[in-house]
Amino acid sequence: MKYIFGLGFLFLLPLLGKGQQLPESQQLAEKVLNTKNNSSYADDIKVLKAMEATWLQTADNRYFNYIKETVDKHLSASANYTQINSAGFARSVLMLYRVLEDDKYYNLLPEFDKKLKARYPLNVLKPGTDTNYEFAVLFNAEYAKLIHDSSRLSGIVSQLVAIEKQLQSTNSHLIFVQGQYAVALVDMLEILPDEHPARAKLAAALNRVITAVKPYQHGETGLWNSKLSKAKQGGKNFGPAASAMLVYAIAKGVRLGDIDNTNLSAANKAYNSLRKNYIDTGISDNYPMFICASAEIERATIAAVGKRHTVLLDSYFNSETIRDKSGITVPYHYQWNEMFNNGFSLLGSIFNTNGFKTKTLYTAPTHTTLKNADVYIIVDPDIPKENPTPNYITDADVTTISNWVKEGGVLAVFGNDKGNAEFQHLNKLMDTFGIQFMEGQWKKVEGV
Length: 448
Known about the structure:
Elements: H1 2-12, H2 24-35, H3 41-58, H4 61-77, H5 87-100, H6 103-106, H7 109-119, H8 133-146, H9 150-169, H10 175-191, H11 199-213, H12 228-231, H13 240-256, H14 264-277, H15 287-302, E1 310-314, E2 321-323, E3 329-331, H16 344-353, E4 357-361, H17 367-370, E5 375-379, H18 395-406, E6 410-414, H19 424-431
Parallel strand pairs: 1-4, 1-5, 5-6
Antiparallel strand pairs: 2-3
């Protein structure tokens, strides 16, 4: 029964800390919740990404509600939404649309995009030119994905690659610039799919940045001097914000598998010094980046649980589609990228936090397509009312999947209720494991 225990243990991981002291990232986030009524617009906007990171790590809706309440508060207070030209604010509006699918957020995005394009032209957008730089890159990329603008996404990638050469040619010595660039790179790597042709270039650029700054790390504290040129002269004018950025970029790069985990010791050393000398000083301009860095240090530490393992989500037996806001037909219902109420983005985040790669299979399972997967999830196979041409599970599929399980694969099957799920063919698969889904209904919620 190894294959059953393995998946069950994974879902217990987020619960193991219940009753124990909260991880540091959550302790920091709790301080934000406790001071939200006394915060300014600037403080609110800076902390939004940090609270999102904590929400994704915990699935605790209090952190999500903080983001929503903060955004709604400032939207209500503004007579002209377009005057709110913070890239960090704009990407939180985008995130709220993806979760809630509320048109009031979606309808703001084109105007925010127009405003931010004017403020941050792609061809001159460079780290160090604005404290919102990494947020501008992130909003630009996430909005491009939302509207299926692949050429725009490629343009952002090309600009990020070109920036590295510019930083080298100008011999940029400000650690804040290097930190912003590293954050932009690692966040873009999380957005790009593994198969994107330019992904390797960005990963290589991130590795070069980290390799370049590591020799300037202060030996005693592990922090970075505000100016790299002063670091080897024994200067101690440390840059806590930039150091937190580099901690975040290194830890996240390790978790994503784009940076070798031998670099994690440098991030841990810097983070421990930040904790000792800066983090306990309360809410400050650097506080949001401290939360993000803390969350990534924690995630990188526990990522060894699933390192080098892959979770494969079926999108063949469940192959519903929908036309999205851009008029493009896309896979729909129980997809990793869906942040709305089915919870699959949070499920994926749990896997990612524990080091697993999450991928999707859009074709029938075969020995070849399953051989590199450690977990295979089938959820809610289609019926004709959901998909006019459903891909039913065949006898050949049953043989392929059951053989894969016998070889050590972990199969997870999620069924729906009668009238909303297919049972006849699914139960052929379940029968090989001595399981049957019953078609009876109990305590049905009407209208759902």
